[in-house]
Design goal:
CATH topology of the largest domain: Rossmann fold
Structural class: alpha/beta
Largest sheet: 6 strands, parallel
Number of domains: 2
Shape: elongated
CATH class of the largest domain: Alpha Beta
CATH superfamily of the largest domain: Glycogen Phosphorylase B
Number of helices: 14
């Protein structure tokens, strides 16, 4: 068995409040509860502390750690995984690539044959490659990654619960990056169809950072119909569940290439909130039509408008979907995920005082 040594968590942390940063904030909290000894966290986002100093600190932590949790973005994986593998030749280390989501298998398929073969060889030198969906893990195994396993991305349940009130009725909420691939314009078109042609009294409340490429078009629409669309700014990660639980319905018609399971869907599930989303990537692996979510195909504005209308007009369907979503997302609670992580790491010979 490996001797007790230093454990480190390497990856980007918030801010900015994007998927990788928020995920790693939760992982940091989870490992903090799990371990009796302090562990080192290295933020892979350069924050102006001097590039040589930044790189030297990262390399030093990787060198002195013999148990390393990597939770990286695309570019971090390309650089740090080979570095860890090189160091492991000189000094014994246990390394796990933690909870990758979205389309990582497709990213690897996009490499040329030589680069992909080398990269898969490096991944097979790790203790494990943990993906958040069975579709992703199956895709990784098909290209030769032997140690791929399913572990969910953890979230913290704030305890806020959805309840339909007169104040929340007919108010739809979107929480994500405001960018075309998240389906924001399809959603706005669906609201225009419902409010303009069908004379529904609906409102779309939008939270999230706005990509510069679509800022002009987005605000043009908001200014044209200020009673249909309300931009509410950016919500802090620890407040997402509380904020969204005040609305009638969460909508996320995403077709973002790298989409895994957006954290806002998990937190909506914790709250027992009805959701409408696109049947995209692995989303229908978790949620089922009219049982834990309402589904539409990507880019189908008419279908999106119809599904929103169905859920908003039926209190019983909204409540049923919300209860189903709560059951689906129960395994994503931080304590349950970290227990799965503990079992997995111990099976790989990791050593922690707290175990």
């Amino acid at each position: 068995m490996m001797k007790k040594g230093k454990t480190s968590l390497i990856g980007p942390f918030s801010p900015p409040y994007n998927g990788d940063g928020v995920k790693n904030d939760f992982l940091k909290a989870g490992f903090g509860e799990m371990l009796s000894q302090p562990f080192e966290c290295v933020d892979t986002i350069y924050r102006g502390q001097g590039r040589m100093r930044f790189v030297a600190h990262l390399v030093a932590v990787l060198w002195r750690s013999n148990q390393i949790i990597l939770s990286l973005n695309k570019w971090g994986r390309m650089v740090i995984i080979p570095l860890c593998c090189l160091m492991s030749v000189l000094r014994k280390k246990k390394v796990v690539l933690f909870v990758i989501g979205g389309s990582y298998d497709l990213q690897l398929k996009g490499l040329n044959l030589l680069a992909r073969s080398v990269y898969v060889l490096l991944l097979n030198g790790l203790n494990g490659v943990l993906g958040e969906s069975y579709r992703l893990v199956d895709g990784l195994r098909k290209i030769g990654v032997r140690h791929a396993s399913v572990i969910y991305n953890p979230r913290i349940d704030s305890g806020h619960r959805w309840s339909l009130t007169e104040d929340s009725r007919n108010k739809i909420v979107f929480v994500s990056r405001v960018t075309p691939s998240k389906g924001i314009f399809e959603l706005m078109d669906a609201i225009a169809l419902l409010c303009g042609l069908r004379k529904r009294d609906y409102q779309l409340h939008i939270f999230g950072p706005i990509d510069p490429e679509c800022e002009r078009e987005f605000f043009k629409r908001v200014e044209l119909h200020p009673t249909w669309y309300l931009y509410r700014g950016v919500v802090q990660p620890q407040q997402v569940q509380e904020v969204i639980s005040r609305f009638h319905l969460l909508a996320l018609p995403t077709f973002h290439y790298g989409e895994g399971l957006p954290g806002v869907l998990v937190e909506a599930g914790f709250a027992g909130m009805p959701m409408v989303m696109t049947r995209f990537n692995s989303l229908d692996e978790y949620f089922k039509e009219n049982e834990s979510a309402g589904f539409v195909e990507c880019h189908d504005v008419d279908a999106l408008a119809g599904k929103l209308d169905d859920v908003l007009l039926s209190d019983s369907l909204a409540t049923h979907i919300g209860k189903g979503a709560q059951e689906v997302t129960a395994p994503f609670h931080l304590q349950r995920v970290m227990n799965d992580v503990r079992i997995f790491l111990l099976s790989k010979g990791w050593v922690f005082d707290a175990f």
